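Researcher: Go.
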Amino acid sequence: MLKVLFWSPTVFAREATLDALDAVEGIETEIVQEIDDCVAGIASADVLVLGDAPPHDARRVVEAIAVSDGRLRAMHFVSAGREGFESVGFPAGVEVTGPTGANAPTVAEHAVALTLAVMRQIGRIAVNTSQGAWDRSLVRKLRSLEGQTALIVGLGHIGREVAIRLRAFGVHTIGLQRRARPDASVNELGNIADLDDYLPRADVVIISAALTAETAGLFGAERFAALPDTAVVINVARGGLVDTDALAAALGAGQLAGAGVDVTDPEPLPEGHPLWTAPGVVISPHIAGGGSPASMARIGESVAACVRGLQDRKEAGAHVG
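Model: Structure:
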């Protein structure tokens, strides 16, 4: 019988994962919330289900796997990001999987919501509402998405879903990939290596690329300056793709019309950071993936598929445990 250890310090995807595992026969599931219990349970587990963790906790997990007897065969992440573990390195001989694209529709929806919030002055409208202020002068600051050009930097699962939604608003979409491949979700395709060539055309920049050594700090002062001063920047990927100080400075200097960010670097954004009070900014606290039962169900099913795959290989004669 396979033993599944589920380290779940937060409620994220917990119920959906447990529901999906309940439907898998021939397994034992143990759920723990504390890092100490996770480390203690690794030696007796075949599969470790978990989310990303800070580097110091990730290191403890990896070290516990290294000194175990080799029973653990797979780590399956319920989170899209794995930066904490990537920073310390994954253990040798352990399959690492995750819920590829599971929450892409929800994150894309949030990206569009941030775009509309900035362009339609929803933040200012919300303040006026709380103050009982009927201020129609805001109409001069409103902008429509119709007829705009959106540059989507990173045309993976999230980027494609963003493009599909933006095109419904009448937006001309340009998708940038590491290697441009035919993709019907956008009007134009290009390479991220040619990013600078596309910046002057962008009314909206949607950042949805993976954070790698090559993309860290992808957007800084020079690239913000290269955008039109009417441009809006949206980041729903990872905070490390953007120089947060440079973004705050560009907004303060009027080099950008606004920004919507769900992620920052550092995170959480420190109290008193100038981005909090920069003009035209909307900040959400890394919650773009929330709110969709369908996304949670996809994450849960990805866990179940990982476990069933190990069961199938065991039945076929592969070594498991």
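Model: The chain has eleven helices and twelve strands.
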